[in-house]
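Table S2 (text version). Query chain:
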Amino acid sequence: MAGGVGTESFSARTRKSVLRARIALRKSGVDYFRGDGSDWIALAGLLLTVPAIVGGTIASPVWCAPAMLVLPIVAGGLLLRPASLLGLYAAAATGLIVESIALGPYTQGAATVTPGTVLTVAACGFFGLIIAQFRARVGVPWRRGGTMLFDLRERIRVQSALPRLPKNWHSEMALRPAGGQSFSGDFVVAARTNGGRTLEVVLTDVSGKGMDAASRALLLSGAFGGLLGSLPPHGFLPAANGYLLRQDWDEGFATSIHLVLDLDSGDYELLSAGHLPALQLHAGSGRWEEKSGEGPLLGVYDGAQFDSCKGSLGPGDVLMLFTDGLVEASGRDIAEGIDRLTGEADRYVSCGFQGAAWHLIEAVAKDVNDDRALLLICHDA
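Corresponding structure-token output:
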């Protein structure tokens, strides 16, 4: 009985804490990003620039042309909400009327408000209103709204960071989005599990590329990061597959390869979901071997099974995971692309693979219009 009362009291406290957290979040962040944040400071500042420009135009139209009224209008389109922007437009229109009255009718060589000036200011106002309505629709605030995309990019980068490894291990990852963009459909999540004795790494290639796949990659990287280490290794890909199926995306499939590496013995297990094989360099023979498990793409059908492939990294061995952007090209077979990748990688055998990931992407797929990711795991001799 006492245990039941204690449980009920704990549940009530938990519900109250969650409710308070939601209220605080709504007040501090959610409403703000929906466009409810005050923009009166920006509006007041822009409204003050309108009479300043009008006064400057009347005093010296040669140095302060009537068309300078487009400056507060353009700034308003980037900073203000649509309702506030209309007030700024009314002030700018009033300013044009005052300028036209003060400067008089147009004569040859005289500075005044011409029909072209009015059309220029009106066109800038129209495009500024479109920008403001778009920001209001997506909930971007007038302050620091432009930094949200940078925050998302940094979040993907942080989630793709590899954990520190013991002294006899080296790992590095390089990621290059398509078209020189900041966002990619390729991502990595990694964690040390089993008391730090095991390294688990998942390299995923989301369907699409660049900005088209960036939003799905951000969502999946967060979900996969939560699943990794919370489930047994053989349960990760089935859980990830079920998660993609529940999203019901039109283009929702992805390929993924899951590495489970014992940092004490060097033994590893690879599980693949339609991904390209990994490549292992055997230090003794100097040859590269393809290593891959078997399994379908993620997000295609429920109940998919993923069979593993086992191997071992001895001293001096290297394991390389990569996405198809490095080896696929129109008019070229994937096997040819893999041969080119391993040929370039052979250059680093004698000097070590420190910093090799980025240089390998530059060497084999510099101008490819596809997302590219490369991960190297080295067992130092």
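Notes on Table S2: The beta strands are 169-176, 186-193, 198-206, 254-262, 267-273, 278-282, 287-291, 308-312, 318-322, 372-379. The chain has three domains: 2-26, 40-138, 150-379.
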